[in-house]
Queue: 2 jobs
Job 1
Amino acid sequence: MESPIDARRRQMLFTSVAAAGLGTFTPTVLAQETAKPKPKPLPKYAAWKNAESVIVHSSNTIETRRSAFGTSMIVPNDILFVRNNLTPPEQDIVADANAWTVEIAGVRHPGKITVADLKRLGVATLPTVLQCSGNGRGFFGHKASGTQWKVGAAGCVFWSGVPVAAVVESMGGVAEGMGYMTTTGGEKMPAGVDPKTVIVERSVPVQNIKTALLAWELNGEPIPLAHGGPLRLIVPGYYGVNNVKYVDRLAFTDRETDANIQRTGYRVRDIGVKGAPDQPSMWEMSVKSWITHPAGEGPVRAGTAQVSGVAFAGVNGVKRVEVSLDGGKTWKDARFFGPDLGHYAWRQFVLPVEFKAGGNYTLVSRASDTAGNTQPELRQENERGYAHNGWRDHGVKLIVT
Amino acid sequence: MESPIDARRRQMLFTSVAAAGLGTFTPTVLAQETAKPKPKPLPKYAAWKNAESVIVHSSNTIETRRSAFGTSMIVPNDILFVRNNLTPPEQDIVADANAWTVEIAGVRHPGKITVADLKRLGVATLPTVLQCSGNGRGFFGHKASGTQWKVGAAGCVFWSGVPVAAVVESMGGVAEGMGYMTTTGGEKMPAGVDPKTVIVERSVPVQNIKTALLAWELNGEPIPLAHGGPLRLIVPGYYGVNNVKYVDRLAFTDRETDANIQRTGYRVRDIGVKGAPDQPSMWEMSVKSWITHPAGEGPVRAGTAQVSGVAFAGVNGVKRVEVSLDGGKTWKDARFFGPDLGHYAWRQFVLPVEFKAGGNYTLVSRASDTAGNTQPELRQENERGYAHNGWRDHGVKLIVT
């Protein structure tokens, strides 16, 4: 399946600006990431996060600092980004996770099942990259509405739960004619609002049943409320929004849900155009990479250094990462390090370099995947600033002393 | 290389009790793990640990509860066991980790180097099982002195740091005639005591240079003080004590250190015998496994269940895990799940089973490694209760309602 950006490219709906390749070069990491305005406090449900390693954009959006990414493959829970579409439910829903009930519909024998009983059906462990559709929105030039994420609305984490396939099998299999898996979050609906306009309900193609999990564990601990506990749907290789939190209902359906978040939201379209169902949906993630070390927060010393970062490719594996120190004029192949955790995880890459005193460097990385895709140089302009995988904007400007 | 228990077996130094296989069967999980005495408070340097998931034995020994192990491959920092041989240094040594200095000796160009400069030399990421030599001591019958660990003085974690080989290469290579890598911890020596009697200084065979790391990161974050930050030596496949914390000095030496912790400590010998340098040292870990789900804390419901656990084999890979529900009378092969993180990590195993109402089950697991070793049924009796990998003691008694 195509990524939404590839699908959009195919549709030839580019704005003239993007088609002409006139995206401006804005790896303004030094200016924007080190000038720290008075930080917003962590919201109560995420008070346990490491405040120094994150940027609180709002009570529902928390970003991992580029400088906080380590080199241990995974992003630990206390620095992992948070993005909620609605206010999370009350904390008490994770107090007895096993008692949480989910409705399974669109199967031959529909019914409700508790997390305790899901745990009896099977267990699987899967590392995936979780990434917000708007990661990189902060690099767009047209003030796309939404959180101005740079690189930190993403993380590689371990999920553990039951394969959706095992749950469906225990309920007689998918009912006939169902092309989608439609999952509903358990957030409380605000009063006086048409639920369709706010409910978190997402549909993905039914073939994801082969890889999806209903997960109760994140990096070795019960999923915290901030990350969708007690039960979250994991659709490997898909953007974060499809990984529905606090799963209340999982249904196999003959069409996509008509909830706004699916019908008109998370659709890739030209700037100024309204969302509509015929536009590409934010499903599969595109190939992407960025440099995490050095992170560009302050000057670095001359001499040998290890330039490292992360790369992933949605449902495909990453095949190659190149690194440039001169903003893309010349490239060298980086080496992967750390274990290969499979297609849905990210790979770490490193290139040893020699930085010269007084030098000005623009570090960029460019990943290619096993399906033959390579990160483009420029972002694909689009109304909501989705799916940014242009390598130029994600660069790090560096001053060497 | 042989594990210390295998070496000891070869030396034919068994006590008559062990040789006759008369070890008593003590999988008394229900009685011992669920009867919670008033819990000791977490020590200040580890106050950030998840108190509900750990057992505080003393200010220097904290165990992960069997029921707290998840199924996400890794054990997160806040539930990982702690074992310090001395009081840890002051918290301020991790405040500026990059400034920490380590002396490198026994190389052609010896010298001191900061963590900041170590980071310039290379980067590697390695998942390993960290396990205390005395893990399982609580199952011995002779009241071996030391913390009465059951299964929770172990965890699989990601380390990131610089290969020791890269550091040594930058200093001209190992000096001639050096057979050991001898590493010294940075703890403050208590006043009025001969340092040799208390210092944490361990020697391992020099060939470990091929795999060892000087690590600054644990599971994606700077190593906390409790786990040896700012800098810890990681010797993959070796017992925890060799993974020296707060590394102050790393030296290549022609003989093992004569510090007590090496000369007479961490030596496998018969009950009642004093430690001596000719006894096997606690170096390579033996093949071992245990069941984590169900953990035996309370009855389980009849019906289908997933019996799962973890298995590892020191420097060898795990090849096979069998599970028995009847205390070892009959066995079935378990299936591995989750990614294979390499020889030094653990593998997760699972066996789907049917528990009958009113049944009494004794769940045990038995792992085999790629070198042809299989866990023995019984513990090998030894003075300090080291290296317990007998499968019988590690079982879980289960009541099904």
Job 2
Amino acid sequence: MLSGMSAPYELFYWPEIQGRGEFVRLAFEEAGATYVDVARKPGGMNAMMNLMKPRSAGVSPFAPPFLRHGPVIVAQTANILFYLAPRLRLVPQGEKSRVAAHQIQLTIADLLVEVHDTHHPIASALYYEEQKAAAKKRSAVFLRERMPKYLGWLEGILEGDSSWLLGRRMSYVDLSAFQVISGLSYAFPNAAAKMKRRAPRLWALHRRVEERPRIARYLASPRRLPFNESGIFRRYPELDLPRGG
Amino acid sequence: MLSGMSAPYELFYWPEIQGRGEFVRLAFEEAGATYVDVARKPGGMNAMMNLMKPRSAGVSPFAPPFLRHGPVIVAQTANILFYLAPRLRLVPQGEKSRVAAHQIQLTIADLLVEVHDTHHPIASALYYEEQKAAAKKRSAVFLRERMPKYLGWLEGILEGDSSWLLGRRMSYVDLSAFQVISGLSYAFPNAAAKMKRRAPRLWALHRRVEERPRIARYLASPRRLPFNESGIFRRYPELDLPRGG
């Protein structure tokens, strides 16, 4: 069923940010898988850009991240994780579980677009400073309505007696939820402190992921890039709620 | 492999817009499948809202569209199509083709978010009139940079000798590309007329889809809702390029 079992996993992503690539890195790290983070190696950026050129047959990636695994190239973060998860044993077997996991991952992907647009509501190609007024308005709506809606939905899934989003066993979507909470806590520390009180199960899940031995080792290693103001989650204090707010 | 073959397909989506539900409707229509467009039936909106409530076990949809097929509920448009396509014979068999199709569909999903944000760059919950200044700025960047980037990528896939995005046979992503071109031509007629000259293969694909007998019958039927100013693709002339521009 799962072809290319012995081929190496090559991840292609921008070398200086966590960004969307981080969701794939976390899956590899938790699984203890060997992978190459290609663009962080010498010559890797060229290799990445070459693979994005139009090809005479087949579909080139529209944007990083993408994965090369033997003859298969998979682009789009959620698609990469859908492909990898059964191979890394990070999702229960069966179509129903995979569909549920994918729904959660795609909803997280939608959230990420909205997080990005808090600081870039007009255009990715413009500087933040050129769209700061719109960014303030969009961030206010995001923190007041959208973040609570998304995180409330995730919190709702954790109600009842399940420790993890898919039930009794950890899966890749828990790693993704961890990354979202980490990022929101970095970008909007005041709003996140407030949200934590409304979504305690989600913050508890975040802590459980953080303490898993392989994830803890990864987070302490140089492989984990720090958050910064070039990624999706950016700390611009003027976009956060006021302290204690 | 494909469970629930005999259960009915029930689509849940807002009853008054094409929106994201339309991508699923087009797949059903092209396949000649029997489906229920639940929220357009009496009592259907209640049924839809009930299914979105948090459940004691499992994952409720975050938002429409979602599909119920026997015991399985699938949310997120691209996930629904990934689930349906092999059942409706709208994708070649094999993981490699399914992964490539899904990448295209997810990239189209990203484009749809950007189209929506041309008229709602600050907040979905506010009226267009309340964010018109930002909408003009965002639309200008969308038409100048983003639309050509996305459509140029799709056009690039069609170069060489393939008539369809996955090669020799039509698949569900061609239906989705058709819908994107239809929507952009409705929302931005001037910009679309200009773009057509740069992406002739994509417009030829649009015409081939439109002329398929089942699609042509569907488009002429009352099941096809008209475009309007409540959906993703909205015609606000002030956001388009000037005529001949």
